[in-house]
Design goal:
The structure is a single chain. The protein is mainly β and 334 residues long. The protein has helices spanning 77-84, 316-323, and strands at residues 7-13, 25-27, 32-33, 36-43, 56-70, 92-96, 99-103, 107-111, 124-128, 137-145, 148-153, 169-173, 185-192, 196-214, 220-226, 229-231, 239-240, 274-284, 288-291, 296-299, 304-313. The two termini are 38 Å apart.
Length: 334
């Protein structure tokens, strides 16, 4: 129906599950997709004298599968909500002219107004407004006090410097944790070949999400769905362009794993003792699709998060922690 370059994926969050939401759909940045309606069938049991099968009977048509992509800022926020079955929290923000930076790596964000107690260890915070451009960006929080945050700059190509208070600075973070919120989507596939053709998938729920972080590579992700309804009419009258931010990579946008038993003070793998080459995070929701004679019921299933990683050990210190089944905080941030 269309070449790969002519296929567009778009979505809108549903207000009521399986009802086409009003308003524009947002285009999805993707690298591959397998969205389809899977026909499930059974063989007729009618006995024939010629030994042939009387019919192949279709029992259901299940919207499923999903897409893969490269992670970028703002690309998949709604689908991340769907994977965690929750909504992003209202951002914690401190904005003041009393914020400063001290230290020389590790650094601290300091507030003489003692307003930083709203943050937590392992928060990813965004600072902006400092007079020095290198001080504006994303930090991993390692220690928390009302007047001071221990922080590590995540972007490896940016080195903060000491700056006194005086500029109008804001520090913000978002958080996500799993819950039991219903996040459902209408997803459209439009094929822009010789003639526009459409497919829509309704009441689509994130069944699995994966995040693949490999050394010297883009950060990639994928989302798989299970849904309720499928059709070939056009679900949207207008579209919003996909986010235009650059894709993230592991060279500039990832602060490693368990840096903390090193200089930045976290409890994790020591950079002097091990090198992590790959981290994979996967969320599995085990979404249920229960079909009755007069309805289809969708269930959330059980939330499960898995973390897998590859590393080589340079000393026995971290290897001993591995074989002895000791705890270590990940310290992953992006």
């Amino acid at each position: 129906m269309a070449d790969t370059n002519d296929v567009k994926l778009s979505y809108a969050a549903e207000v009521t599950p399986d009802l086409n939401p009003a308003g524009a759909f947002t285009d999805i940045p993707w690298t591959s997709e397998t969205l389809k309606a899977q026909a499930n069938t059974s063989q007729s049991g009618i006995v024939r004298s010629d030994g042939n099968i009387t019919d192949i009977i279709r029992n259901s048509l299940v919207p499923q599968n999903g897409f893969s992509g490269e992670l970028g800022f703002g690309y998949y926020d709604d689908f991340i909500e769907g994977a965690f079955r929750n909504n992003w929290t209202t951002p914690d923000t401190v904005a003041a002219i009393t914020l400063s930076i001290t230290g020389a790596g590790p650094f601290t964000l300091d507030d003489s107004g003692s307003g930083l107690g709203v943050f937590e260890v392992f928060d990813i915070v965004h600072a902006k407004g400092f007079a020095t451009a290198a001080n504006n960006g994303v930090y991993l929080v390692t220690t928390v006090a009302a007047g001071s945050l221990g922080v590590v700059a995540i972007e490896t190509n940016r080195t903060p410097v000491v700056e006194a208070a005086g500029a109008s600075v804001s520090v913000t973070t978002d958080r996500m944790a799993n819950a039991q919120v219903d996040n459902t989507f209408h997803i459209e596939k439009r094929m822009q070949g010789t003639a526009l053709e459409y497919m829509f998938f309704g009441n689509m729920r994130v069944n699995t999400m994966s995040l693949e972080i490999v050394a010297e590579s883009p950060i990639t992700t994928s989302f798989d769905f299970i849904g309720e309804s499928h059709g070939t009419t056009k679900p949207s009258a207008s579209y919003t362009a996909a986010p235009a931010n650059d894709p993230m990579n592991t060279d500039n946008h990832f602060k490693g794993v368990g840096q903390g038993s090193g200089a930045d003070g976290l409890t994790g793998l020591a950079t002097a003792d091990s090198c992590v080459t790959r981290v994979t995070m996967q969320i599995q929701n085990a979404v249920r699709r229960d079909a009755a004679l007069n309805c289809v019921e969708m269930g959330k299933g059980r939330f499960q998060m898995l973390l897998d990683w590859d590393a080589y050990f340079k000393t026995m210190s971290d290897y001993d922690r591995y074989v002895n089944d000791e705890n270590a905080s990940c310290g992953c941030s992006y």
